[in-house]
Specification:
It contains 12 helices and 10 strands. By secondary structure, the chain is an alpha+beta fold. The protein folds into 2 domains: 89 residues, Phosphorylase Kinase, domain 1 (2-Layer Sandwich), CATH 3.30.200.20; 229 residues, Aminoglycoside 3'-phosphotransferase, Chain: A, domain 2, CATH 3.90.1200.10. The strands form 3 sheets. Strands 1-2-3-5-4 form a 5-stranded antiparallel beta sheet. A 3-stranded antiparallel beta sheet has the order 6-8-9, with helices on one face.
Length: 331
Amino acid sequence: MLEEYNNIFELFNVKVKNGYKGRGAYILDTSKGLKLFKEIRMHREKIKFMYEIEEYLFSKGFSNIDRINLTKDNNPYYEDENIIYIMKNWVNGREIFFNDEEEIYSSVKNLAILHKCGTDFPRNNKYNNYVKLGTLVNKLDKHNTELIRIRNKIRKVGKWSEFDICFLSSFKYYYQKAIEALSLIEESNYTTLVEKYNKKNVIIHGQYIHHNILVNNRKLYTMNFEYCNIDLPVIDLYRLLRKVLEKNDWNTKIGINAIDIYNSIYPLSKDELNILLYLIMYPEKFWKISNYYFNLNRAWKPKQSLVKLNKLVSQKGKKENFIQELSKSLK
């Protein structure tokens, strides 16, 4: 199977000893170490942006990453008949455990260091498509509109599923939280923060969750920068915290400690911490589950979606408690 790619491997200037399929790609044992090789559906400009992002981070000492390899022609990808391939450095490791406090805090430290190393990225007016600063309000407003659309769509259905009933019975609560959180962001100093970070050009990972943090010999490796962009670093922290807290039943101690650890390495202003609070308040998981349910047509999705929605609803009180405790700590 791999033989059909031998001519491409040569263009990346490596000799492949053997390989196997994994993580939707090929993991290769090569003359230059372990590599990941895959077909990628991504705009060429985004691949160049991702390459420059990783090289900048590496130059600043953030070295445990899956750097993209260049071809002999110094391109970060190879294209053949409109199919684009990339090759990256890889490491054999396991996903980080988000039910282990020590590993949670290690991932938080690692993220803070990423943001510290990723400050002042010299984009020089290039890659404007990947600067997401200032887009948060519009994004959340679209989510709110989609929630209304989903509710109206369900109401028109003659026969309701268990998911439909659970969604409708939960809708008022979560929609009110969505409106409240968005209003707080609009009334905050978000615009001022955007102006500040327009000058700092901080790299954010975009999808910094357990799937993209590998552990090997007690070292953390940050992988898959395919969602990287320029934005407020607190948005990366929010995504990490939400995933960690959902997996730990909104444990207040873990959440507050994680924020303190991040803040000790990459200090956040009061305005940024307020944005973090409002993002946590926003019911993104409710929107995500609902949007997935109504926009994908898979035979198994209703049961899986219902399980996720029921779990979300069951954690409602504990999330409220965490938000109250975080709000107190920020005063």
